[in-house]
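Per your request, structure below.
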């Protein structure tokens, strides 16, 4: 399956040429927004590490809890297809079973979010950790640490 993030007119024109070159029948879909960014990926992983270190929880458990408690509601709200799948397969399960499934099966949540959704997710996760008294490293500080060889 081909997928592209279209950010410029040239990107869109190239995608149209690609579609026109395909044989029919063909199924296409479009999602408004762009995939989350590498900086978002690095920051949220850093925050999972911070929370795991502070609470003594396993990194993967912290990550799964955030996906289930914060990410799932965002995707359920914004994506009818995801909501239907989740409600039919995972929603009826007990909380601990869901967490284990997200750890063991690496069910995609944040990796299928747009930049806007990932930003909302990060804001909510940050608020959740900070309100629980978990200090989080500043993602901007990474630039300076790298610059000074730390």
């Amino acid at each position: 399956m081909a997928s592209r993030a279209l950010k410029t007119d040239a990107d869109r024109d190239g995608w149209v040429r690609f579609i026109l070159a395909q044989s029919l029948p063909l199924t296409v879909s479009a999602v408004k927004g762009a995939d989350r960014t590498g900086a978002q990926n690095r920051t949220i992983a850093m925050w999972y590490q911070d929370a795991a270190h502070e609470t003594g929880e396993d990194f993967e458990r912290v990550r799964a809890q955030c996906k289930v408690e914060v990410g799932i509601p965002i995707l359920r709200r914004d994506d009818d297809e995801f909501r239907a799948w989740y409600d039919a397969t995972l929603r009826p399960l007990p909380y601990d079973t869901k967490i284990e499934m997200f750890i063991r099966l690496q069910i995609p949540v944040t990796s299928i979010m747009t930049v806007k959704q990932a930003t909302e997710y990060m804001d909510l996760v940050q608020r959740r950790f900070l309100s629980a008294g978990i200090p989080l490293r500043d993602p901007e500080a990474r630039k300076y640490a790298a610059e000074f060889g730390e």
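The mean pLDDT is 85.

Regards,
D.
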